[in-house]
Fold this sequence. Notes:
With about 325 residues, this protein is mostly beta strands. It has helices at about 1-15, 55, 205-210, and strands spanning about 25-30, 40, 95-105, 115-125, 130-140, 155-165, 170-175, 185, 190, 195, 230, 260-265, 275-280, 280-285, 295-305, 315-320.
Amino acid sequence: xxxxxxxxxxxxxxxxxxxxxxxxxxxxxxxxxxxxxxxxxxxxxxxxxxxxxxxxxxxxxxxxxxxxxxxxxxxxxxxxxxxxxxxxxxxxxxxxxxxxxxxxxxxxxxxxxxxxxxxxxxxxxxxxxxxxxxxxxxxxxxxxxxxxxxxxxxxxxxxxxxxxxxxxxxxxxxxxxxxxxxxxxxxxxxxxxxxxxxxxxxxxxxxxxxxxxxxxxxxxxxxxxxxxxxxxxxxxxxxxxxxxxxxxxxxxxxxxxxxxxxxxxxxxxxxxxxxxxxxxxxxxxxxxxxxxxxxxxxxxxxxxxxxxxxxxxxxxxxxxxxxxxxxxx
Length: 329
C-alpha cells in the first residue's frame, strides 16, 4: 500500500502521461516502456540517416564528433536536456533540497586498488518529502582499467544504469552538461530496462562511415526477449572493419527496476574523441522522509562498456542511492 500511495503521489505531482516527450526538461519514462522500445531518444531525437548535414548525425552515439554549434542546449537539441543549475549540487528542479551525496572512486575492471575515475551521486528531496531526484555523473581519468593487457586500456562508459525503481511507476528523467570545454558526452537515449544495447557506426575510419549505423544497428532497440546486462557483438573491431550484427541483438526487454542512460564517456576513445565527463543524469521518483544514508545499495549503479570499437563487454558495479524500500536483485 505504501508503494502504491507513493506512485499515485508521484503521478499527480508531475502530471505525467505514458507518451514520449520531445522538449526541454525532464521527460516521462513509464514502467512499461514505450510502444515498440524500452528506450526513448534524448540527444538522438530528430536524427536523420543518412544525414543532410552534420547536425543530423547527432554524434551517432559518440562515433561522430559533435560541433560546438550542435551541442545540446536550452535552445537546440534539447530533448531530455535540462538548463544547468548554478552549481552541480543544486537541484535541477526548484523546490528540492540536497539531502544526500556520495563520491566514489571508479575501480579498474580487474579489481584491486585501481582508480580510473570518480562517480558522484546526489539526492534532492522536495519539502513535502514525497519526491526525490537522483543525480549522477562520471569523470574518467587517464588510467588503465585492465592490467592484464599491455599498454593503456581506457574504460569507455557507453551506458549508466541505475536500479531500484520497480515500485516507482513512471519516473521523469533527463540530463545536463556543466562543462563548456566540449569534453562531455550527451545522453543519446534513455530506457526503462536492465539491458545496455551496443551501437556501432558502419566503421570508424572516416567521417562518412562514422555518421551512419553499422548493418542492423538500431537507434531504438526492440523490446522482445533480451534480458542480459549487455547485448551486441562481444568482440573488438578495427577502425576499417565494417560493423554488422543481427536484429536479435538489438533488443532490450522492459525492466521497471532499472533506468539506463546511453552515452559515450571515455578519457580517450578509439575513434579519436575525448569525452572524459558523462552528462549529469537525473531521475525523479517518489520517496519519503527517511535518512538517505539508509538508501545506499550495493551494485545500484552499473557502468557498462558495450564494445563500440576495439573493446569487449565490461561492467563495473558501484554502490549508490536508490528509492527507500528498493532492492537490487
